[in-house]
Amino acid sequence: MIFVVGIGFFSLCFLMTSLGGQFSAKRPVDSPFTVRAEVLSGHESRGVLRKISDMLEVIMKRMDALSKLGNTTEAHRLDELSSALDRIQPVGLVERIQAIAQNMSDMAVRVEQILQRSMAANRVREGTLGQCETPKDPRYPDCPSKMDWMRARWTSDPCYAFYGVDGSDCSFLVYLSEVEWFCPPLAWRNQTATPTLKPPPKTQAAFRSDIGALLEQVGAGKESLSFMKRRIRRMAAQWASAARRLDDKLRDHRREQKRILVHVGFLTEESGDVFSPKVLKGGPLGEMVQWADILTALHVLGHDLKISVSLKELHGFLGVPPGRGNCPLTGPLPFDLIYTDYHGLQQMKHHMGLSLRKHKCHIRVIDTFGTEPAYNHEEYATLHGYRTNWGYWNLRGQQYMTMFPHTPDNSFMGFVAEELNETERLNIQRNKVNNMAVVYGKDASMWKLQGKEKFLAILHRYMEIHGTVYYEAQRPPEVPAFVKNHGLLPQQELQQLLRKAKLFIGFGFPYEGPAPLEAIANGCIFLQPKFNPSHSSLNHDFFRGKPTSRKVSSQHPYAEQYIGRPHVITIDFNNSEEFESTVREIMRMNVKPFLPYEYTCEGMLERVHAYIQNQDFCRPEAPFPPVNSSWLGDAPGPFVLPPDSSILAWGANASSYAPWPPLSALRLLASPEGQSCVRACRRAGLVCEPALYRFINIREAFSALDLQCDGLESEMNHLFPAFSAEHAECGLQRDPLLFSCAGSSGRYRRLCPCRDYRVGQVALCRDCL
């Protein structure tokens, strides 16, 4: 009998080999015995079943003959055959037979699945004959064109087959009505087949001080990730102390824990990751500083955090279906918030398909230089010349988050610099070397500034100049011989150098980095060049193509405008007399270490907490103005002039509206002609707040400002609402995505929604917490 079984299994081997060809012909990379979940066409499945039937018949005939042979008395024939079998039996035959048997079992399951699907398809065809015609429903105008597209292109992406599309009109309609939303629900489909998933219960977030779990999530394998982990470890004690202080401040506030995905797109291999190889060679570190601080802030605030630095991780976290990204996600979005960058946003567009449009309200884009609404609105940017390689995502302006608070249309995310305790501050003041300067620029290319020799020679007459320029073997020729170059320094050694130096001097590049704030926090005076004219996308290659028209007046506008003298001095480096007198003045000055609250750990935690708990771009906004408003008609409007103030404030009953920032912070003014709302609000000691634009986009706002409208129009214009004095015309904004603090025109006086702000925390109004 053993012999009979052996011959039977050799027949099975033949069967499996034969069948393997059927499957391996489809995908050469698959094993012939691999069971895959793809759906065979009717012709293919019938061919496979027919072959299986033929082979099984052959096996049964062989088994029957062998059985009869076993019942004869000719034992010597059995012995001969058994001996022959022993001679040809390969090593490990039993194990191979067991493996083949298991594969045969799997094949049987697969055949059963094919049969079941075939019968189910037949039932659908029989039960829905005439019910799979393309519906003509005015509520779904794109359905016919989408059906035509599916007929022609459904094989272009494997994700369609993943969702059950098999080339029939019925499968197209099911997909377009249940997976996508271009066709109406089908009456003959069981609409309760897919249960509605309830969102997870809300839990309260608790501050964390242990960073072990965060470090494990950040991962390894890239020098950029190692740099971020070193920074997280070095700052851990300051984050923990800040968390305790903020916890005491927010004791009566409930903080909901959010499910948050952080996808650092610029560090993925698919984006090129040009940063990691340059970490130890003087490359830019500002972005990695900011991302390390964002990760730490989210972790310390107690949120449920997932971190992705590869497309594979992104797919796994989001539930991306297999294919080329044309299909939506396989289920509801498993996150409340997604923090990413422009590279990550492009990757999500490619792999999330239509789901990105559906879930984009959850996205926050870390954007160093800012994105203005005119560049963000795809249609408007295309029509009016604002289209660039970035922007055009049709997000709300506040979904972009910047490194510095230079673009009020965006949210200010920021980063942190190390704080000094009182003992460290006193030691720094005692140990400052009065004639020591450090140059801002660790890459040799930053020393190629034309004319630098002239002002460096002046500085050299008064101070010993130090550099931290990266080099491998030879001293960079761009660095003058009188400069003492330390090479690229680890962070702690750089801090010690800054704590001794009196002056930190910039050459004009890089723009808006973290280093000047770190130098000022260590007691240095930052001397930087003034740009005349200001640098922008209109006149400077670095900004060309960036989605902003912002004019940069100096190397570090935040330091110039928000810190200023005595810590920051901005002058014309081309004026030798002014430069020399400024150097002499600096040597006479004594300044204390200074760090704005918004760049401390507590300041960043406070700001990020406020954004997470209050910014909700997924919730529909209540219409404004309401039809039954008490101030419509003959009433003057919702604005009043508070006592001892020359700026209008919100005076109407705001109980039915709960925007954030609250309406109590709103101040209404009109800019002079040719001035943006960014500048107009700043000159009034306020900040422009785009979230409050919809409350001033009404006729009554013009009346309150004594602007008489002979005509009133509504259009898509990033300068509106605005008043044209030449024609006495008032313009209202038609598209909320174009509400913009940025932008000006000599033709218009713009209506500006300004607000107050907390001292040291420009992102938040006084009532914002």
UniProtKB/TrEMBL annotation:
- Listed InterPro entries: GT18_cat (IPR026116), MGAT5_Glycosyltransferase (IPR052105)
UniProt pathway: Protein modification; protein glycosylation
User: A single GO CC term, please?
Assistant: Golgi membrane
* An annotated Gene Ontology molecular function: alpha-1,6-mannosylglycoprotein 6-beta-N-acetylglucosaminyltransferase activity
UniProt entry keywords in alphabetical sequence: Glycoprotein, Glycosyltransferase, Golgi apparatus, Membrane, Signal, Signal-anchor, Transferase, Transmembrane, Transmembrane helix
Enzymatic reactions: N(4)-{beta-D-GlcNAc-(1->2)-[beta-D-GlcNAc-(1->4)]-alpha-D-Man-(1->3)-[beta-D-GlcNAc-(1->2)-alpha-D-Man-(1->6)]-beta-D-Man-(1->4)-beta-D-GlcNAc-(1->4)-beta-D-GlcNAc}-L-asparaginyl-[protein] + UDP-N-acetyl-alpha-D-glucosamine = N(4)-{beta-D-GlcNAc-(1->2)-[beta-D-GlcNAc-(1->4)]-alpha-D-Man-(1->3)-[beta-D-GlcNAc-(1->2)-[beta-D-GlcNAc-(1->6)]-alpha-D-Man-(1->6)]-beta-D-Man-(1->4)-beta-D-GlcNAc-(1->4)-beta-D-GlcNAc}-L-asparaginyl-[protein] + UDP + H(+)
* Keyword Signal part of the UniProt annotation: yes
Q: What is this protein called?
A: alpha-1,6-mannosyl-glycoprotein 6-beta-N-acetylglucosaminyltransferase
Recall the taxonomic lineage recorded for the source organism. Answer: Eukaryota, Metazoa, Chordata, Craniata, Vertebrata
